[in-house]
Specification:
Blueprint (H helix, E strand, L loop, with lengths): L7 E4 L12 E2 L3 E4 L2 H5 L5 E3 L4 E2 L2 E2 L18 H20 L7 E6 L2 E6 L1 H26 L3 E2 L10 E3 L2 H11 L1 H8 L2 H13 L8 H5 L1 H24 L6 H39 L5 H7 L8 H9 L2 H4 L14 H5 L7 H18 L10 H53 L3 H18 L4 H6 L3 H17 L9 H9 L6
Antiparallel strand pairs: 1-3, 2-3, 4-10, 5-6, 7-8, 9-10
Helix pairs in contact: 2-3, 2-8, 3-5, 5-8, 9-14, 9-15, 14-15, 15-16, 18-19
């Protein structure tokens, strides 16, 4: 690769020193290594795999501000950030469905109304804004992260493109749009601006239609987890370091799906309840006032109290009465007063409902002939089948990996017992065989050490052998006075006796 600037090596043997701005001085020589020489070539690329000095990545040493530095995609800081960001993604996916719990029903004697939980709205908006900051920071980091030039890629290695302009151009053409959509504060705008602006006596309560807009942003946010997990797996081999953590991670994703399903069920239950009210309001003499009185902002209005005493809207929509309106799978949310409970009570009940339906594939749902309700039940059945099968498969894989060595040892011990019985070995030989098998398990835990050592590089295998055998060899009086090189040669030729 042709470099723009050469590397100058100058020697001054007579003690004369020529002062230059960017010079690394030593007692006998002065080396001038330009940062542009190390990092820039004719096409602004950096060799990946040949950019290490003393085990460290080579990056600009010209003290540029942190906001102008280019990050190596395989560096430790990028890997740590990916792990932090995937946790923040899971937290953000948990926060978004909490907006569905904002509408609640206030039930008084003979009348009801719908209100928005202001405290919950403020808390969720604050937490959601913090989560959005992580998405914005992720975009900034991706604008400053180098990438491997496709034309130079060989067996997964290649040259890193360090030019910020090329990095930005490539990022904008690939993943920027999805990241930008995921970063937008859509729920905040819907709750604080769109709903108050459209709330008029004629537009009634359509919290569900506006809140479902949040799900449009939920899709790209959920999508970001998969390429992020692939990057972590490509760098480290696994997302989680232990089998128990992997099982917990898959269980957390299943709980997240139950959380989203329960929140959606709650919101649709409130909407179904208000739909019954609105269908009866249309039969009133003054339907506009009826729509207005369904909002709790008019709860202390004197005209509303008179109207509530004379109307049959609430009694005709009370699920405990014999009514014509069918609530279907939303019946429990109304008869058990979930829609009018405090946040903790209704959240736990909805989470349990989501877990129950996903685990049973929606088999215990009693739906009406309403198209939206039937479609929701179909989605529950399909999601439950797919997610539950995915959870069981992954949990089985992770948990089996914990005990696979133990099961192999048990099978081998059983085969040994059957072989000794078939050959009719005497009891003393059987005892010695059992004792050896037990000793081998306690010493190695079923791991084939020779196979692991043979797969390692020669220098690393030599260092391991030195670590395992050096103290043992030095205990022998004949070897205690020998030099290290001879002891290393002895250690290399030692073999474990089985």
């Amino acid at each position: 690769m042709e470099l723009k600037k050469g590397k100058l090596v100058r020697f001054y043997s007579d003690g004369k020193k020529h002062k230059e701005p960017s010079v690394l001085e030593t007692p006998s020589s002065i080396y001038k290594l330009s940062s542009s020489t190390l990092l820039k070539s004719s096409n602004n690329v950096l060799p990946l795999g040949k950019n290490k000095i003393g085990g460290s990545k080579v990056f600009p040493e010209d003290h540029e501000p942190w906001r102008k530095r280019i990050l190596d995609p395989g560096s430790e800081i990028v890997l740590k950030w990916n792990r932090v960001f995937i946790v923040s993604c899971l937290v953000a996916l948990f926060l978004d469905p909490l907006y569905f719990y904002l509408p609640s029903v206030i039930q008084n004697t003979g009348s009801s109304c719908v209100r928005t939980d202001l405290t919950l709205r403020i808390v969720v908006t604050f937490l959601r804004t913090i989560a959005d900051a992580f998405y914005l920071l992720h975009i900034m980091i991706k604008f400053r992260t180098a990438y491997v030039a496709p034309s130079s890629r060989v067996f997964g290695r290649g040259e890193l493109v360090m030019d910020p302009t090329k990095i930005a151009r490539r990022y904008i053409r690939s993943d920027f749009f999805i990241d930008f959509i995921a970063t937008l504060p859509l729920p905040q705008m819907v709750i604080w601006f769109i709903i108050p602006a459209t709330r008029t006596p004629q537009t009634d309560h359509k919290n569900n239609a506006l809140a479902l807009i949040v799900l449009l942003q939920y899709v790209p946010r959920l999508y970001l987890i998969f390429p992020l997990s692939s990057q972590i797996i490509k760098a480290t081999g696994v997302v989680t370091k232990t089998a128990w953590a992997g099982a917990a991670y898959n269980l957390l994703l299943y709980m997240l799906a139950s959380h989203v399903l329960g929140a959606s069920w709650y919101l649709l239950s409130v909407d179904r309840y208000t739909t019954c009210w609105k269908s009866l309001c249309k039969k009133e003499d003054n339907p506009n006032n009826c729509f207005l009185y369904l909002d709790c902002t008019s709860l202390n209005n004197g005209m509303r109290k008179i109207w509530a005493n004379s109307t049959d809207v609430f009694s005709s929509c009370d699920p405990s009465n014999d009514i014509q309106f069918k609530y279907g799978l939303f019946q429990n949310a109304l008869t058990k007063h979930v829609v009018s409970s405090n946040f903790i009570s209704k959240y736990l009940y909805c989470l349990w409902w989501g877990l129950q339906q996903l685990s049973s594939y929606g088999q215990n749902l009693d739906t009406s002939t309403f198209i939206g309700e039937t479609s929701f039940a179909i989605v529950i059945a399909i999601l439950g089948l797919v997610l539950f099968a995915h959870l069981i498969g992954n949990m089985q894989t992770y948990l089996q990996s914990i005990t696979i060595r133990l099961e192999e040892w048990r099978l081998k011990r059983r085969d040994t017992e059957e072989w000794m019985g078939h050959r009719q070995l005497p009891e003393d030989l059987r005892f010695r065989v059992r004792r050896f098998v037990q000793y081998k398990w306690l010493a190695t835990r079923g791991v084939d050490e020779e196979t692991i050592l043979r797969s390692l590089p020669t220098d690393l295998r030599r260092d391991i052998q030195r670590h395992l055998c050096l103290d043992l060899v030095r205990r022998v009086p004949f070897f205690s006075q020998m030099d290290d090189q001879l002891l290393d040669a002895i250690c290399e030729r030692l073999r474990q006796i089985r």
